[in-house]
């Protein structure tokens, strides 16, 4: 087919029979009907494709097979592009044009935009709302009982108008005809008899007016029935009220008169009046006070303490109450003059003098003897402070030749003797309510100097309440320093001079609360004391671990401080800023210090007990504890081991059979006569203890108890056999045949316990075995073939789940590519639309500006023309 495109088009139309002129007449009409429009359009599309072969694309197949139909081989990109443009014009372009318009219709039907509701639920919800709206906003409610009825009767349930108040008169001749007329003519005959002849024509459809008339009649019929029922109830109620007096007369009839009835009615009226008055005077419930904040509670506590202190001072000074003072008692409680039968507890003296409850012969300042003794004590204390006080100096670490020890705040104990700490008679003064916050141990000792020991925790509590952080800015720093003061005070009262261990537990709660509020500052105070203890231990070891004068083992104050750490801080943490250094220091004491006296063994046993408290939850193994307990058994009890080499296991006991430790063994006479008791730490740690043999026996029993407790604690450790077996061998080697029955039974119970634990541990152990592996197959290099297709690695994966996952990934990838492609086309389409809109705006603006410019130019030309005419007129006038 050669020639131009027009020639090709004519030839194609001619071959398709589309350019033939239809014949005239009926034949033309018949042939035009035969030519279907769809076929005509199909032929035109074929001609169009043939004229432009580049509109159709073909995909070349790698392996073409004849007769096989594959989708997507041919495509029409121009047609697809045009279809996409049309679709975007219908969607994106429409949305773009409606963007920012407020006149769009919003579908606010109930449930229309809720995908969770089914169509049935939507219909039900809409019906419910419609009925509610009708019941609330209807102008006329047919079910309202206050509406008037038709002739006082409801016609809703009436089949006809018989008995509805519309009956005919008796003097009428044709009653049936008139009734039929009323039925059919007046009310439309809406209730015909059902037994009409079926051969008649079907009943006509009722109009809206007739239906509404029927509904109104039924509604009024219901209302009439309710009115009749109400009338009957009212009549029955009135009849009962009328007969009530007769019934009451029969019940209370006495002698034929109604005096009793009248009296009863009068009493009932009186009781009724009394009940009404009681209800009026009944106290109604009041709202409770709101929960107060921490700042408000602290302020109230401080205010209460200050008021109590002012009252105490007035009582002490014997002052009268001022009527203007808030703290003054009411006038109703004023003291009265003494009577004849008074107990002399609250009378007012006749001469008007008031001693503030101190009794006759005493003034407000107390007895003169007491004041004198107090002055002497103060002088003595000041003399001691000047002569024998020692500060918390750290010393020079380089000056090791002098070996000066850095004492803990226990050195403050040398300032006061044990007698000066005894509480004085404060019955006349009472305990103050306000105290300053001490910044050092000396200030705190001066505060509690005259306070009984049992009231020291109360003093601390009042100091904390008066200096709550919310009351002043600097109170926070005062309470932080109070933590260090309490630590120094604990060290002071547990020093070798004071030895007041009973006062430490009441102070622990306050120290715990301060440490919880200020953990960092509190930890700093504790760690500083631990560093000082470590420094003293280093100096003592450098002086000589076996030297009697070397300060190696911790004293009572150091032991009380370590016990305080176990009460204040968490000991089960893996790493703790206070407990971890304390644990290392305690291990150093047990592992490095040498036993020289009974007090050293007591200190070591106390440290072992502290380790039990420390590791009660974490159950960490401490090797120094079993070693020291085993050594303590060898030091205290007689045994069969003669040399150090004969000791079982790997027990490290450098002081075995030393001269200082030989005197620590319990004598046979003591084993036969003495009974074990609870050991006293204060008595055992005394440099010169009394009843030494009893203390030795008590410590031996304590060691046996600790052996059992640690054996139970370490039963879950993998190496418990190696830990418990040396201890069991030592227990079996003890010679306690001559001991009392209590001690022998305790020893036998511990031996049985360790034997049982070791037996169970050995039964649970399994010998080591090589790690079992799955047999590794020999590698094969035979290629894998699939008869179905050569792309088995991609399509025919033997693993079904993996094949499904690969398929999903492929589908996701294809969908993602398609989505990106569509988004790009949408963006391109919108860019073209916006560009056209901008061009239209620019063109409109340019036309507007051109019109304005032309108008201005015209005006300017007219103005110049007018100026020229004026100038010309002036010139003409000048010439004349």
From TrEMBL:
Residues 31-41, 119-133, 202-211, 222-240, 281-309, 328-339, 833-850, 860-872 have a biased composition (Basic and acidic residues). One of its GO terms (biological process) is maturation of SSU-rRNA. Residues 170-179, 190-201, 365-408 have a biased composition (Acidic residues). Keywords: Nucleus, Ribosome biogenesis, rRNA processing. It is found in: Nucleus, Nucleolus. GO terms for cellular component: Noc4p-Nop14p complex; small-subunit processome. The keyword Transmembrane does not apply. Pfam families: Nop14 (PF04147). Residues 1-45, 67-86, 98-241, 281-434, 833-880 are annotated as: Disordered. InterPro entries: Nop14. Involved in nucleolar processing of pre-18S ribosomal RNA. Has a role in the nuclear export of 40S pre-ribosomal subunit to the cytoplasm. Belongs to the NOP14 family. This is Nop14-like protein.
